[in-house]
Amino acid sequence: xxxxLVTGKLALVTGGxxxxxxxxxxxxxxxxxxxxxxxxxxxxxxxxxxxxxQITEQVHVAAYDLSHADGIAEWFENLCGTAGVPExxxxxxxxxxxxxxxxxxxxDWNAVMNLNxxxxxxxxxxxxxxxIREGRGGRIINVASLMTAAARPGISPYVASKGAVGLLTKxxxxxxxxxGILVNxxxxxxxxxxLNKSLMADPKFDSWVKGRCPLGRWGxxxxxxxxxxxxxxxxxxFITGQVIFVDGGWLATF
Length: 254
Prior knowledge:
Layout: E1 10-14, H1 19-30, E2 34-39, H2 42-52, E3 59-63, H3 72-83, E4 88-91, H4 106-134, E5 138-143, H5 156-176, E6 181-188, H6 197-200, H7 203-212, H8 221-232, E7 243-246
Parallel strand pairs: 1-2, 1-4, 2-3, 4-5, 5-6, 6-7
Helix pairs in contact: 1-8, 3-4, 4-5
């Protein structure tokens, strides 16, 4: 057996229509997993599912607005009844609201904290409850950020939410280790995604990223996807509670 494969597993990926989420879904499918894609937009889900169906036949789509955290538990149970019970959960959905801390509205703060943190907590709990009830282990991989360990001006809600994701990852890993549920996070550096297109289009910012990163480039969704597959695979069976930075060496220098 190749311990780096996830053959026969079912993975639920949030934010699965683009960027890191879609990259993770494609890599998981290439490694043998079936995939449940979760997103808000049904049309975008079908487009992403079309890409996945070129790799695997086991693709499900689930349109749901994860910002409605109070409905996640019921939605997840219904999803298990139609698509099957996933053994891998990738929490990739997230948003950012940019602006000076003194100017951002409380609504901006709450929106970021809700989707980037509360949703991860609630979906992870629903996932864990189901697996614990069935006496099965599983894997949770959260998408954290370079901002889990560092900060820059103008994105205080995002920094706070991703810092909390790092410690939530550790808290849930410790709590569910006895149930065979391993919880880790991958923390990307600056990645070429739709979320960062405006930054990449700014020549000054683009030059700063490339000059500051030891590898001299923006990362790609694929750069993040394969570490996610590793953490979901048997090769990572003794790893839990970790935040693995995939940042091109960013935090190794100054």
